[in-house]
Write a structure and sequence with these properties.
- The chain is globular.
- It contains no helices and eleven strands.
- By secondary structure, it is mainly β.
């Protein structure tokens, strides 16, 4: 199995920046993709961004294109989400997740880190 631990969340003012980190451990050699999701109170969990582990191909939700950047450090088994130009509507719990090579779905999830965008 894979264990995922998010960090880097916190309180930031609108227009500010924040970088989230997700450290993976366990069967990391079997990971094919890692992604970021978020869930605001009363809302369903939504996809934010993803990156393939082998070639760093990226995919973004439309509402974060041009503002967020996902990246990975294979040596550290860590994926990052650089968030710029943050908006109040970005306030949510952010989760990282991993897709294993034998799966078409996200198999493992972290416990989440709170991001609050407020003046």
């Amino acid at each position: 199995q894979v264990q995922l631990v998010e960090s880097g969340g916190g309180l930031v003012q609108p227009g500010g920046s924040l970088r989230l980190s997700c450290a993976a451990s366990g069967r990391t050699l079997s990971m094919s993709r890692m992604g970021w999701f978020r869930q605001a109170p009363g809302k369903e969990r939504e996809f934010v961004a993803a990156i393939t582990w082998s070639r760093s191909n990226t995919n973004y939700a439309d509402f974060v294109k041009g503002r967020f950047t996902i990246s990975r450090d294979s040596a550290r088994n860590t994926v990052y989400l650089q968030m710029n130009s943050l908006k109040p509507e970005d306030t949510a719990v952010y989760y990282c997740a991993a897709v294993m090579s034998s799966s078409w779905q996200y198999d493992y999830w972290g416990q989440g880190t709170q991001v609050t965008v407020s003046a």
